[in-house]
Amino acid sequence: MLETEVGGLRLDNPLMPASGILGGKENAMEYLAKRAKIGALVTKSITPEPRKGYDPPIVVSTPCGLVNAVGLSNPGKKALRRLVEVGKKFNLPVIVSIAGKDENEFQEVAWEAVDVGASALELNLSCPHAKGMGLEIGMDIKMVKRITEAVATTVDVPVFVKLGYVDRLVETASKALEAGASGLTLINTLRAMVIDVDVMKPVLSNKVGGLSGRAIHPIAVRAIYDVYKETKAPIIGVGGVYEWRDAVELILAGASAVQIGTALVDKGPRVFSEVSAGIAWWLKEKGFKNIKETVGIAVE
């Protein structure tokens, strides 16, 4: 009942962790594989060389979610074999998230990921706090198309382009698909800031970070709805999923699979079992045989 397929990637369960959450070390990924009811593992965004990221503080809690500026810290492409091996050990697909400054860096990591057995790639074109990467690229439609084409036309695994909520989102998504993307991941965190009123300075060392959690969920629903309405693209939905109703909303808006991030931090791995059980119950209550029958049915 929970089996699904998105952009050529078959999943026994539609749920997976969002990139950046327990995806940078093999022991963390093993922890998730053992304890979470998921359909795939997702690595942190990997760059050609290791990145230290920003100095603490890098995460601050707010009443509506988390604001983080980790700085794309990651072990670099040489760690990919170890990360992908975790998926093979537990018979789970591994989606390798990739970040870089240009198409050459994206290609470099993509080819290494495919060589070591990655099941799919996710191009992070939407990180809101890494200078010269992420959102700065995702806001440039020509750059999105160039990077997507450079990767998608040179690998033989599904390629998902992760976009944030930007101006001309539908147009940007369409260009990524035209360039060969197998599907999209929508959305990433949103640029945000928290100021300490006692010291009268921003809390994060980078000042600006990305807001995740419940506050961005309605935005994710709208983004997925808008893009699916115009493109009917395969979509992995992400943004503020805490319970099964949140996941079902994204599915009804057009997502075929769902990632969970902040709720994993708050609730631990049990969130995946809770959401999976809720989706299965809802499908049965509504008389659906599988998730595929429900994808995008709210879109008019």
CATH class equals Alpha Beta
Largest sheet: 8 strands, parallel
Helix tally equals 10
Beta-strand content bin? 15-25%
| SSE sequence, one letter per element | EEEHEEEHEHEHHEHEEEEEHEHEHH
Fraction of residues in H or I helices: 25-40%
Q: What's the CATH superfamily, by name?
A: Aldolase class I
From the helix content, strand content and strand pairing, which structural class follows?
Answer: alpha/beta
Oligomeric state of the chains?
single chain
N-to-C CA distance: 25 Å
**What ranges have pLDDT less than 50 throughout 5 or more consecutive residues?**
none
CATH fold descriptor: TIM Barrel
Q: Please give the radius of gyration in angstroms.
A: 18 Å
- Globally, the shape reads globular
Widest sheet: strand order? 3-16-15-10-9-8-7-4
* Count of domains: 1
Round the mean pLDDT to the nearest integer and report it.
94
Number of strands: 16
Q: Can you tell me the CATH architecture?
A: Alpha-Beta Barrel
Description:
- The protein is of the alpha/beta class and 300 residues long.
- The chain has one domain: TIM Barrel.
- It is 36% helix and 19% strand.
- The protein has ten helices and 16 strands.
- It has helices at residues 26-35, 80-89, 103-115, 135-138, 141-152, 169-178, 217-231, 244-253, 262-267, 270-286; strands at residues 4-6, 9-11, 15-17, 41-42, 59-62, 65-68, 94-98, 120-124, 159-163, 183-186, 190-192, 195-196, 201-202, 209-212, 235-238, 257-260.
- The strands form four sheets. The chain has an eight-stranded parallel β-sheet with strand order 3-16-15-10-9-8-7-4. Strands 5-6-14-11 form a four-stranded antiparallel β-sheet, with no helix packed on it. A two-stranded antiparallel sheet has the order 1-2.
- Strand 5 and strand 6 form a beta hairpin.
- The radius of gyration is 18 Å and the shape is globular.
- The protein starts with a strand and ends in a 14-residue tail after the last helix.
